[in-house]
Amino acid sequence: MVNGTGAMVQIVWFKRDLRTVDHRALFEASKAGAVLPLYVAEPGYWRQPDTSRRQWLAIRSALEELDSRLRQLGAALITRVGDVVQILDEIHHKQPVSAIHAHEETGNGFTFERDKAVRAWCRQHAVPLHEHRQFGVVRALKNRNDWGRFHHQQITAPTLPEPARLIAVPTMAAQPLPTAQQLGLHPDGCDSPQPGTRAEALALLDSFFAGRGATYRRAMSSPLSGEQACSRLSVPLSTGAISIREVLHLCHQTRQRLAAHPQPARPLPLTALDSLVARLHWHCHFIQKLESEPALEWRSQHPLHEARRPVTTADDPVLEAWATGQTGFPFVDACMRSLVATGWLNFRMRAMVQAFASYHLGLDWRVSGLRLARLFTDYEPGIHWPQVQMQSGQTGINTPRIYNPVKQGHDQDPDGIFTRRWVPELAQVPIAFLQEPWRMHETMLDRASLVLGKDYPMRIVDHETAARQARAHLTEIRRQAGYRDAAKQVYARHGSRKRTIGNDNPAKQAAEQRQRREGKSQQLLFDL
């Protein structure tokens, strides 16, 4: 079909890929004819239990930036609110469409079903649908052994340039982006989440390379130092304002540039860049898990863990206490309150709060995972759900980590700065008791102007007893017949080929093996 310009009309359907650079769908469509850049804000999606206002605000910021850039290229972003299939029907009736270009999306169950409905619509109307790969994630992957090669090819391929110009479809008028209120999204405690824009991503990379990331390796574990030292790229990566391939290419280019200078002249050590690159490579590894098995969003990877899942209702008071930072464990509560207010938490603390919910509090990972999903501005389903399962001990192939919430507070916040910032009720508690206020006697509580159970909650469980019970529960499940065989099947489908079952840190294992070999060599010398 042609429009008044004599050009073929191509829809570029934007989803979680809100950029113009390294955008295969836009690049290919721009070569074929007139382009209709389309974004559909779907009320059905925003009614899902894993979506939230803060996520929309981040996406909206990226959409505003995208629209501005597209207008400079010649074609404004056409935004519509509603069901995608119905929107396509309306567009096709008004301006027949010759093809639709989009990136593959590994999203939640709603987007999975939505994409299937769009494919069916395209078949019904004989409209070619070109779905392009965005990540190093392979659709319909038959064998995980092949994934590394596919991932390497995708990630190391050259990035695509922005189209020089776009031919617009004059019959389509732009509409204002909907507000959060119009999508039925209510305030959630985070009024100013991190923007999801390309400008934000590039500024973060510039500052990281200029020295902000100098302490990355040792600072990333603490929510206090990690707030500044971590890359903070997760939000623009989740909106697709910048591609994972672009980020990795920029990291490698910067490393080459820095390596050419003597070490004292480098604004950050090369090891910091190496650590960032290593973590960025996990991005596609985890998304591939959900792509290969969409049911991971609601079903445990290991069948014997699925059979023993606890039942937790959405209004469970223990769940509510955990989600709002009222458990009586100061460091856990500080992390959750910080997350509620900012929409971000460093990775180690994400692992800790999820593990605490599952192991110490005995909550169903799916229900606690939904609460976290809504709190994360950078919610990426393909990363989130496999991580939630891993931190809850549901995979059968990862070493269960039951974090001691008191020890984590001492280790990651030794001066109590982060804890006191987010749990001001404990401002006058001495540092020795800050992570264990229940150990304070009455005189000390009076001096700190603190009444436990009134000013600040009593601890919701005895963490040491709860940890012992959790370990016993895991041991019981792992001793069941067939556990190992089922774990091997999970590993065959999802496991990293750089490690073996139960080994979550190959580098550490390799170092320990080297030490053992060196130790044996030394012993041989002594024997001689």
Structure explained in plain terms:
This protein is mainly alpha-helical and about 525 residues long. The chain folds into 3 domains: about 10-155, 3-Layer(aba) Sandwich (Rossmann fold); about 200-295, Serine Threonine Protein Phosphatase 5, Tetratricopeptide repeat (Alpha Horseshoe), CATH 1.25.40.80; about 300-495, DNA Cyclobutane Dipyrimidine Photolyase, subunit A, domain 3 (Orthogonal Bundle). It contains 24 helices and 5 strands. It has helices at about 25-30, 45, 55-75, 85-95, 110-125, 145-155, 200-210, 215-220, 225-230, 235-240, 245-260, 270-290, 305, 315-325, 330-340, 345-360, 365-375, 380-390, 405-410, 415-420, 440-445, 465-480, 485-495, 505-525; strands at about 10-15, 35-40, 80, 100-105, 130. A 5-stranded parallel β-sheet has the order 3-2-1-4-5. Strand 4 (about 100-105), helix 5 and strand 5 form a beta-alpha-beta unit. The protein is globular, with a radius of gyration of 25 Å. The N and C termini lie far apart (about 85 Å).
Structure keywords:
single chain, mainly alpha, Rossmann fold, 5-stranded parallel sheet, disordered N terminus, disordered C terminus
Identify the overall geometry.
Answer: globular
What's the quaternary structure here? single chain
Provide the spatial order of strands within the biggest beta sheet.
3-2-1-4-5
The CATH architecture category of the largest domain equals Orthogonal Bundle
Low-confidence stretches: 1-7, 520-528
Helical proportion, percent range = 40-55%
CATH class annotation of the largest domain: Mainly Alpha
- Give the mean pLDDT: 93
Please tell me the total number of domains. Answer: 3
